[in-house]
TrEMBL record:
Pfam families: YopX. It comes from the Bacteria. Transmembrane segments: none annotated. InterPro entries: CHP16711, YopX-like_C, YopX_protein. It comes from Streptococcus cristatus. This is YopX protein domain-containing protein. NCBIfam families: phage_TIGR01671. Residues 4-127 form the YopX protein domain.
Length: 132
C-alpha cells in the first residue's frame, strides 16, 4: 500500500494534498490550484492517512477529529466521545481524555466513527467537549 499524506500550510492556514516528499532536500510538493508548489518541511505540518475510512466513506488522516459512540464500562450508558487521530506507539489511536485503539472502532471495512473536523481548522470542537 502506498502511503498517502496531506499537509497543513502554516502560512496560508489551509490543507493541501501532497504530491511528493523529498527527504534528502527536505522539500515537499503540494497540489495547489492545479499546480505543484514546493515548500520547505518547516513551512508545513505533514499528516499521514490511516488507510481507513469513516462511516461516511471519508478517508481518515492523522490530525482528524472524530466522534464515536462510547459506553461507560460500569453501565450500559452510551455517550458521544470525541478525539484526535494520532500516531502513538506504533499504531493510530483516537485520543481525548483516554486513548482508544482505532482497531477497537473497526466495523467491517469502515470505522464506526465520523470525521467532524481536524486539529488545525476546528480546535474549538474539542474545547467545547472539554467544557462539558
Amino acid at each position: 500500500m502506498q502511503q498517502k499524506f496531506r499537509a497543513w500550510d502554516k502560512k496560508l492556514k489551509e490543507m493541501f494534498e501532497v504530491s511528493f516528499i523529498d527527504f534528502d532536500t527536505k522539500l515537499i510538493g503540494l497540489n495547489i490550484d492545479l499546480e505543484i508548489i514546493i515548500f520547505d518541511f518547516d513551512d508545513v505540518i505533514l499528516m499521514q492517512s490511516t488507510g481507513l475510512f469513516d462511516k461516511n466513506g471519508q478517508e481518515i488522516f492523522e490530525g482528524d477529529i472524530v466522534q464515536f459512540e462510547d459506553c461507560y464500562t460500569e453501565s450500559d450508558f452510551l455517550y458521544i466521545n470525541k478525539g484526535i487521530v494520532e500516531w502513538s506507539q506504533g499504531s493510530f489511536t483516537v485520543t481525548n481524555r483516554d486513548s482508544v485503539e482505532m482497531e477497537d472502532l473497526l466495523n467491517g471495512e469502515r470505522l464506526d466513527v465520523t470525521i467532524i473536523g481536524n486539529i488545525h481548522q476546528n480546535q474549538d470542537i474539542l474545547e467545547v467537549a472539554d467544557d462539558q
